[in-house]
Prior knowledge:
This protein is α+β, with helices and mostly antiparallel strands and 80 residues long. Strands 1-2 form a two-stranded antiparallel sheet. A hairpin with a 2-residue loop joins strand 1 (42-51) and strand 2 (54-62). The chain has helices at residues 2-18, 25-33, 65-79; strands spanning 42-51, 54-62. The protein is elongated. The protein starts with a helix and ends with a helix.
Amino acid sequence: MKLKSLCVLILALVILNSCDYRTPSKDRFEKITKIELSDSINVTEDRFESAGPDYGLFYKFDLNENDCLGFKSKMEESEG
């Protein structure tokens, strides 16, 4: 019985680790900056870099001309 319980526990852990519960990059960016991105903006890269007790989040995303102008105006609104 103990072996069966152990096998079930190990299987459950393997299944849970194989799922990606990470918050999507776009959602994380919007929450941190409080700037809502349009659906046409695509986050192409995000990186988490650890440096001791500090860390950095780096985002790279594609903008077309309209997205760029909208993003710029939203940044100006949030600053002032």
